[in-house]
Predict the structure.
Amino acid sequence: MTGAKDGLTYALAGVDIAAGDALVDRAKSAARATDRPGTVGALGGFGALFDPKAAGYVDPILVAATDGVGTKLRLAIDTDSLEGIGQDLVAMCVNDLICQGAEPLFFLDYLATGRLEVDAAARVVEGIARACKASGCALIGGETAEMPGLYAAGDFDLAGFAVGAVERGGVLPRDVADGDVLLGLASAGVHSNGFSLVRRVAERAGLGWNDPAPFAGDATLGEALLTPTRLYVRPVLQAVRAGGVHALAHITGGGLTENLPRVLPDGLGVHVDLLAWTPPPVFAWLAEAGGIAGAEMRRTFNCGIGMVLVCDPGEVDALATLLTDAGETVCILGRVEPGRGVTFGV
């Protein structure tokens, strides 16, 4: 096969294979730091391997989850604050997995961009690796796609894929009953949902990302809003293994209103006590600056509760102590009762 002296190359078309290789080399050490029992091989193969038996499982059910970080990514790109967005990506996946009672085992990422900027991409991947390690989850593979013409200069998109396991018979939810108690775990802020509305509120308020945050002391608005999604894996799995947890709900898009019913059997609803917790100040600012009604806030944002455990009433005190000792801020959020959906009151 021959070509003209001035013939085209892949690099001239906008795809830099050498940059991709440089990113893989830089990512390898970050990924290797996440190795755990069950990890097989290293980055670079056509597929990623994991051995559930080596991880200690006898008869596992596999659980998979995939997610992104939504338009929070726009804020991270615009402020060049990329170190925390990897934790958002991991958290959105592994916090979902544990709701089935599963332990996250391994993670893969996907980064797509118009032109690969190795340093920026590496900062994201290194954040992913840190969050995987904090969750006991191995980063065993991923993909970087350079697609000129599809993304504006400097833009990229992210997706994450997590797989976990739970022994057969341990899948949640199960045994949810009238009178079960809801334990709420505090969020770190907005987490990674509702940012299309957050951006509109900031615009209406006439604020830029580098302006002081009206609700966060010395932080800029961008810094305050980019607080990463909390990783609930280790303390929540401790609670599940202690016994008495009947269901878990990760409070993401849809808020308490939409996510709690996902773990309830037919004929049961929940009552949530609105005085049980004090939402972080960011939510009061969003509501006031955006003129957002309470019901809309509760079905868009987590409003300060990032994870809910549905618990046997007799185990509530022990579970609350365990979670508090593990560093979580815990409240008794409400109860399961006959009915449907979520009611809010005092």
Summary: The chain has a mean pLDDT of 94. The chain has eleven helices and twelve strands. The longest strand covers residues 156-167.
